[in-house]
Write a structure and sequence with these properties.
heterodimer, A: Aspartate Aminotransferase, domain 2, 2 domains, 7-stranded mixed beta sheet, 3-stranded antiparallel beta sheet, 15 helices, 12 strands, globular, B: alpha+beta, OB fold (Dihydrolipoamide Acetyltransferase, E2P), 6-stranded antiparallel beta sheet
């Protein structure tokens, strides 16, 4: 079932658009700018529409099926969010509109800052960072500036557990610090002894995800926070897994100094290709002056009940800077606002309860079929091992590929790195029991197939437009070109 | 288990590099166990000749379709030769990790450290236990 490329349906001389006669004097392009080696497809408008519509129908998305991609929280994007984002007063607002003309948008951003701070028990929030990794970067830069302002320049390290997202050590390095990896103990928690041994006056802070990337709530998180604070370091929480905590645990109350939120995970704004993301950051009193700006402040209090306050964009006193053009990804702010508004405090708590319940349901149903390396009650996600002791040569990747034949998006593969053949499964709260049961059935059937006919897995997928892709070639030949492949690309791929 | 090989004339580190001692020099690569865990290797980043590394220091990166991993020095050493043909054809790490896909040659800066590495029996036991 192969799909012709747009080049293959091209035929010489066919045109899709007829341009009107020129009604201004012609200004020919300079000869040296004219190129005749460009191979452009010659197709009609209808061919273009059919070609790309057909391709788009081959997409797999949360709108078409179950998408249990661990640590990514691929939750449904409620359509009400889209309605709110498309309100003309928001959608058509120019970013350079003066503050008086943008009071509605500023009021929304202010309220979202307040809500995000409240949800995680922090003093203040900034909506500026463009996505999670930039939120992390903002957080570590704030920690850095906090130490520098106090003249404490001997701190050069940030502690990072070995279960961390790869962005954590990358952030640390980008911010000019050295990442020090901490081992995990047998229960999947941070090894407390190793942590205590690493804590000294060269530690600027620690980055930790709660629940961690194994989906486990750190059993001794208070001791972890205490140990780092005792040596003068600050605590950063990677908020990627906040979907397990809303209304249940406030990171600020656990003692964290700063965290980032993924509005595109926890607060249901589009994720992946449908982004952009939004990586808002929340901080306690200590770090509030350093927030990336501008943030929205009330510059004039309301005069009486019928009046509204006047909002303005301000840079925090000792801000680490702006980080991004304008005020963050505003289109995500109004979607996240709508989501929080729809659910309310009780609703958000219910979201986390259901996310945790769904993950534990799948875990309990699969625990006799697959190896679960950390057999504990999990948070909103859990990890299992995608291999079988009595079957040689079947890997997590083969199970994932076979899942696609059952019309499920595969879970996250080979992460976290500390679990062999890891499959990280996160169902989210929006799936009903019937969908979870179908997924569980498929996983059990695949385990049976692995024993009866392992080649079925190793050569999967079988029911998709393309079969097993050559990942080695994809990683090595980085030139993506349609047919005919130009000479220079052929050479670059060798 | 046991489908991977470990030659008897090599020494092994806990981070799965092997070392072949040749007088006061050594050849370093990654073990068959490591390449099996990594899956298809697609990229190698190796140091320059003359670079000096302490024991356990990161001297390069091996990247596979699964993950990117640091390469650690099994013993302290100074790089005397780099296997550029392995860099050009990183898949040889999968096909011949003890032969054509050796990674670097070093001058041993602290030869007694060799005794701290595992011999083949200890390494096999170490891998089986993982």
């Amino acid at each position: 079932m192969s799909q012709a490329t747009i080049y293959e349906i091209s035929s010489a001389g066919r045109v899709g658009v007829r341009l009107p006669d020129v009604d201004v004097p012609e200004a020919p392009l300079p000869k040296d700018l004219l190129r005749d080696e460009l191979d452009l497809p010659e197709v009609s408008e209808l061919q273009v529409i059919r070609h790309f519509t057909t391709l788009s129908q081959k997409n797999y998305a949360i709108d078409t099926g179950f998408y249990p991609l661990g640590s990514c929280t691929m939750k449904y994007n409620p359509r009400l969010n889209e309605d709110v984002a498309r309100l003309a007063g928001f959608a058509h607002l120019h970013p350079l509109t003066d503050e008086e003309g943008a009071q509605g948008a500023l009021a929304l951003m202010y309220q979202l800052q307040v809500w995000l701070a409240e949800i995680s028990g922090f003093k203040k929030a900034s909506l500026v960072p463009a996505a999670g990794a930039q939120g992390e970067f903002a957080g570590i830069l704030m920690i850095r500036k906090y130490h520098e302002e106090r003249g404490d320049t001997k701190r050069t390290k940030i502690l990072v557990p070995n279960s961390a997202h790869g962005t954590n050590p990358a952030t640390v390095t980008m911010a000019g610090y050295q990442a020090v990896e901490l081992p995990s103990d047998d229960h999947g928690d941070v090894d407390l002894e190793a942590l205590r041994a690493a804590c000294d006056d060269t530690v600027a802070g620690m980055m930790i995800t709660v629940p961690n990337t194994l989906g486990l709530f750190e059993g001794h998180i208070l001791e972890v926070v205490q140990a780092v604070h005792d040596c003068g370091g600050l605590m950063y929480m990677d908020g990627a897994n906040m979907n397990a905590l809303m209304g249940i645990v406030k990171p600020g109350a656990l003692g964290f100094d700063v965290m980032h939120y993924n509005l595109h995970k926890t607060f249901s704004t589009p994720h992946g290709g449908g982004g952009p993301g939004s990586g808002a950051v929340g901080v306690n009193e200590k770090l509030a002056p350093y927030l990336p700006g501008p943030i929205v402040e009330i510059v004039e209090e309301a005069r009486g009940e019928d009046d509204a306050p006047l909002y303005g964009l301000r840079m925090p006193e000792k801000s680490i800077g702006q980080m991004k053009a304008f005020y963050g990804n505003f289109g995500m702010h109004n979607r996240a606002y709508a989501y929080i508004r729809i659910h309310g405090a009780d609703g958000l708590k219910q979201v986390s309860h259901h996310a945790v319940l769904n993950a534990n349901y799948i875990r309990a149903k699969l625990k006799d079929t697959y190896t679960i390396p950390y057999p504990r009650i999990c948070g909103h996600e859990f990890v299992l091992e995608g291999h079988f002791e009595d079957v040689e040569g079947v890997h997590a990747l083969d199970i994932s590929k076979r899942l696609m034949d059952y019309n499920f998006h595969p879970p996250t593969n080979y992460f976290p790195l500390i679990v062999p053949e890891a499959l990280l499964i996160e169902p989210t709260e929006t799936e009903d029991k019937a969908t979870l049961d179908e997924f569980i059935d498929a996983m059990k059937k695949i385990a049976q197939e692995a024993h009866d006919s392992p080649d079925l897995l190793k050569s999967a997928p079988h029911n998709l437009p393309v079969s097993r892709l050559d990942e080695v070639r994809a990683a090595k030949q980085l030139v993506l070109c349609c047919i005919p492949i130009p000479q220079w690309a052929e050479e670059a791929g060798d | 288990m046991g489908k991977w090989k470990a030659p008897a004339d090599l020494k092994y580190s806990k981070t799965d590099e092997w070392l072949r001692v040749e007088g006061d020099s050594g050849v370093i690569g990654v073990s068959d166990y490591a390449q099996d865990q990594l899956n298809d290797v697609v990229f190698l980043e190796l140091p320059e000749v003359g670079a000096k590394f302490e024991r356990d220091a990161v001297f390069g990166v091996v990247e596979s379709v699964k993950a990117a991993s640091d390469l650690h020095m099994p013993v302290a050493g100074t790089i005397t030769e780099v296997n550029h043909s392995a860099e050009d054809d990183p898949e040889t790490v999968n096909t011949d990790p003890y032969g054509v896909a050796w990674l670097v040659k070093v001058k041993l800066d602290n030869p007694p450290q060799v005794d701290d590495l595992m011999d083949v029996a200890a390494y096999e036991e170490y891998c089986e236990g993982r």
